[in-house]
TrEMBL record:
Single GO molecular function: NAD(P)H dehydrogenase (quinone) activity
Cofactor note: Binds 1 FAD per subunit.
Pfam entry (one): Pyr_redox_2
Name assigned to this protein: Dihydrolipoamide dehydrogenase
Lineage, opening ranks: Bacteria, Bacillati, Actinomycetota, Nitriliruptoria, Euzebyales
Highest taxon of the lineage: Bacteria
Organism in which the protein naturally occurs: Euzebya pacifica
Stretches assigned to the Pyridine nucleotide-disulphide oxidoreductase dimerisation domain: 353-461
Amino acid sequence: MQQRIVILGGGPGGYEAALVAAEQGADVTVVSREGLGGNSVLWDCVPSKAMIVSSVAMGSMQTASRLGVHLEGGVDLSGRARADIAAVMDRVRLLGLDQSADIESKVEAAGATILRGEGRLAGPETVEVETEGGGVEVLHADAILVATGSHPRRLPFSTPDGKRVFTSRELFALQEPPERLIVVGSGVTGAEYAQAFAKFGVDVHLVSSRDMILPSEDPDAAAVLEGEFERWGMTIHRRRRAYDMEVDEGGVRVKIGDKDGGQEEWIEASHALYCVGMIPNSRRMGLEAAGVLTRPDGAIPVDAVSRTNVRTVYAAGDVTGGIMLASVAAMQGRNAMYHALGMAVAPLRWDAVAACVFTSPQVATVGMQGPDDDAANGPVDTIRLDFAGNPRAKMEEATVGFVKIHARKGSGTVLGATVVAPNASDLITPLSVAVHNRLTVGQVAQAFTIYPSMGGSTAEAARQLMGLATAAAQ
Ligand SMILES: Cc1cc2nc3c(=O)[nH]c(=O)nc-3n(C[C@H](O)[C@H](O)[C@H](O)COP(=O)(O)OP(=O)(O)OC[C@H]3O[C@@H](n4cnc5c(N)ncnc54)[C@H](O)[C@@H]3O)c2cc1C
Ligand SMILES: NC(=O)c1ccc[n+]([C@@H]2O[C@H](COP(=O)([O-])OP(=O)(O)OC[C@H]3O[C@@H](n4cnc5c(N)ncnc54)[C@H](O)[C@@H]3O)[C@@H](O)[C@H]2O)c1
């Protein structure tokens, strides 16, 4: 009998699941309150990365003269480049809509139905949808996937108005570059946006609650980025939290202090952007009535094949409160469908997740991030090779980064890596393949790389780790 699948949410967790289930012949309905692609495509990943592309172009104009490129008559481009923020935001919005339309066509072509509206569970096998047209539809399912994503956390005083005060959701309403921007929060969102605006020429003040920005990343990588941020003129307020805010016609004032509220001061700017985390979308969705457990932070706990505590209900993506990445959401969504449809499924490998912070340089990581990351791995050898000696990096003026590899002592199995480079999101791929397939540093070292390339340093770092293993064995 054809299995009936109802998916709540059309982000990567939802639409990737829909593709898999429809391709397997299930009767699939995706309930989505906005275009497919969800927050990922319309508000988060796609727009932020598209905006960063524009900021990198602006940055290249500032440094072009060092590469011997200038305007006719020898006029230096730096200082003459201007960002048309309205045009940037327009491009960003259109790219998101275009990508969303592509996904909708793909999902429909696979045979799934898209129902625009707000869904909620009316039981473990029933979903009620308030449709866009104002009616209510009741859908019966053999399996339900909850993939409703997350929304930006607000501080009690930080209500965004889309004019002077923003979270990542209102930001694209900007029509003029801020004169001065306070970015609160130095996690991935804060770091990416702070640097993008600094490159657009905005005077950025980054409020960072810890000793270093990007507390979840490799500290060496965070140190490189802090250097770059300050080189672009950004002010980092370290070990400071935002405690209050005042807004008027003239601008914003944010009260910052240390973690105990001491060393209080007000900093002023024209605009403020809050990047203080994301909260799973699980409220008012009938989860309790359907018997689905949630944690106090709203996340729905799931196992490695995306099962909740209720047999017919699966969950995927940000709503599960795991590592909030589009790729993880997609993998969880696909796993849920493989399991629900009785197919073979490999449990999600949390030890092999790859991620990238899209700053300049980018910081890409895979697997373990340091010897203390996972004691179960036993002793670990780590090597860091700076790009300073790499010929390609010199040509590209990209020498501040590095490649770092962690491998199990003795066997040389690659357990994790960090790459800091302009194209780290691509350079990490061979190391991600190595971690996923448990390859050794010897296998990575012996593969051909291109000369001259940044990737050459990956093989070189692996060779140096092989050397460590050989020395230990003698
Ligand atoms: C600024 C920013 C940049 C990011 N950049 C990256 C990046 O570069 N790479 C990366 O991997 N990750 C990135 N992320 C994280 C990534 O966006 C999320 O991990 C990803 O979107 C999660 O996908 P999802 O399918 O769980 O949900 P979402 O993409 O959040 O989609 C969920 C959808 O469900 C809808 N929905 C919610 N409730 C209901 C309901 N009751 N009925 C119907 N529909 C509903 C929502 O409106 C939304 O459309 C970024 C996050 C932010 C905030
Ligand atoms: N490139 C990417 O893949 C990408 C980009 C952006 C976001 N994301 C994902 O989205 C999720 C959310 O990212 P995020 O950066 O919004 O959240 P986060 O939770 O990673 O970081 C938020 C930061 O804000 C700080 N903070 C909280 N309250 C504060 C206050 N009052 N004053 C100052 N600082 C305060 C926290 O200490 C924390 O460091 C993450 O899981 C991230 O992986 C991914």
